[in-house]
Each structure stands twice: as structure tokens, then as C-alpha cells.
Amino acid sequence: MGGFMNQSFGDKVKFVLSEYVLPYFFLTLGSIIAAAALEEFLVPFTILDGGIVGISMILNQLTGVKLGIFTIVLNVPFLLLGWKRIGARFLFRALYSMVIFSVCLGFFEELPALTDEEILVVAFGGFTLGLGVGLILRNGGCLDGTEIVALILSRKTSLSVGQIVLLFNVVIYLAAGILFGLDRALYSLLTYFITSKVIDMVENGLDQGKAAMIITDDGRKIADRIYREMGRTCTILDGYGLVSGKKMVMYCVITRIEIPTLRSIIREADRSAFVAISDVGEIVGHHIKDTSEADSLIVSGYEE
Questions:
Q1: pTM: predicted TM-score of the whole model, two decimal places
Q2: Domains of the chain, residue spans
Q3: What's the burial of 176, exposed, middle or buried (CB within 10 Å: 0-12/13-18/19+)?
Q4: CA nearest 50: which of 162, 200, 256, 188?
Q5: How far is CA 88 from CA 23, 79, 102, 245, in A?
Q6: Domain 209-296 part of CATH 3.40.50.1860
Q7: In the Cβ-directed half-sphere of 235, how many Cα atoms lie within 13 Å?
Q8: pLDDT tens digits for range 97-123
Q9: Residue 157 contacts by C-beta under 8 Å, 6 or more apart in sequence?
Q10: What are the CA-CA distances from residue 295 to residues 228, 252, 287 (Å)?
Q11: Distance CA 257, CA 139 (A)
Q12: What's the sign of the alpha-carbon dihedral 76, 80, 82, 83?
């Protein structure tokens, strides 16, 4: 907080815009777009999304209870889990996104469907849903508790976030096929494929690895927080800047959903650090995902 108070007015404005105004603007926009995609395209034709939203859609069709109510109620346990494992910042942004999403579902529910052509429903519904969800994920929010579970399980197993989410969705689409017919399940699966590809374009992948290179004067505090809060280790190298002189270079591999947490850690620990984040095509070998030993470890240069 003291560092924030010592900043110039312009830096304070940039910080507020980047940390609060723009993220919450895009969380709001993404929630509105995702709600419109469901109610204007998918729900009228019983074409399901995946995850908790998909389960909510099934229960909505079977009981008649509003979709927005199920979306909030079923996600509460996962939000609490995310709060304990991922942090209050993620919890608040996820809760904010879900509330806006649920309110907008009620609004769009009263409007007529935009088309009755099922191929258009699948194509534009999948595209619009992917756009909305991608904006939310990009800005540190979440509409679906299965992503929280998937992230936590991925730290304990060899499965990636995307693989775990896919397993959840296979079960949901099998249930859709049994309850509503094989054609509904196939349409839902095709919609999910389109949605995931649009998320790829907006957010560069559901579970794609990201390589973060952090250059700073002393990164041990950053590396320690990355390990304690994210369960990721850093490889620490000596570096030398042509103008700035001796530097510490840290390299770590994270997932897409962890990028907002990494940004937050670096802002709070060392705002002067230089960070470059790039895509990772393939990861071979094991990198730590369990924070159970964090309390007894001081990070000082562990290999990924």
C-alpha cells in the first residue's frame, strides 16, 4: 500500500485502470455476451454447454427452475474451494462474473430466440459463448466451477486442465444423450468444439502452457510467492543488462488460468520487474504442482 501511495498521479491512474476498471469492464462484457449466447441460441434448442453451466441447463430443462439460480447455487462450493486454494482476488472476480451472468440470463430469457435454424444456433451460439467466456477467463474471472476443480486436480495429477475439463464434459454430454436424445448430445459436442476454439483465439488456449521469463534485481521474494501461492517452481539464472548491470533471471512454466495470479504477484512484489510470457508448445518432464511443502521451503533456484 505504501508503494502505491508513493507513485505519481499518472502511475496511480494506470494502476487503477489496469487492475480494476478494464478487468471489470471486460468481465461484465464477457458475462453479458455469454448469457446472450445461452438464452438467444442454445437454451431454446436444448443444446448444452459443458461444466456446471451444462449441468444447470439439464436441471433447468427437467425442473423449470430458472437457469441463473442453478448457475449460482451449484458454483458456490467450487467458489469456496477456489478461495482457499487460489485466493480472494480470484474468488471475487469469479463471483462478480457469475452474478452478472445470472442476472443477464434472466433478462435474455424474456427475449425470443434469434434464429430457428439449428446449424446457425450451433455456429453462432458456440462462437458467441466462446467470445464471452474467453473475455472472462482473460481477465481473471470464471463462470464454471469445474475449471477451479480442474486446476487444483492438475496440480495433484499428471492430467492437464483441459483434459480434466474434457472428462467432466464427456459425462455431461452422455447424460444429455440419454435424457434429450443423441442429436442433442451431438449438437452440444459440436458447439463445445466451436466454443473451445474461440476461447483459444481469445485466451490462447484452455490449458496451453505458458513460459514466464522474469528479469529483476532480486527475484527471490517473487519466486517464493510463486511457489507458495501457485505451486510452481522457478529456475533462477544470473543475468547482466547492457545498461542496468547485474540482474536475476527467473524462468517458470504456468498455465493460462494462472497468468492473472502471476501478474498480481509481480505487481505486489516488484513493480520494476520485466516479464515476458510466451506460449509453450510441449512440456516434457515434471514440474512441481503441490504446495504442501511450501512452508518449509525457501525457493532459491529449483529446476522446473
A1: 0.67
A2: 2-203, 209-296
A3: buried
A4: 188
A5: 16, 10, 21, 37
A6: no
A7: 10
A8: 999 999 999 999 989 988 989 999 999
A9: 164
A10: 8, 20, 18
A11: 9
A12: positive
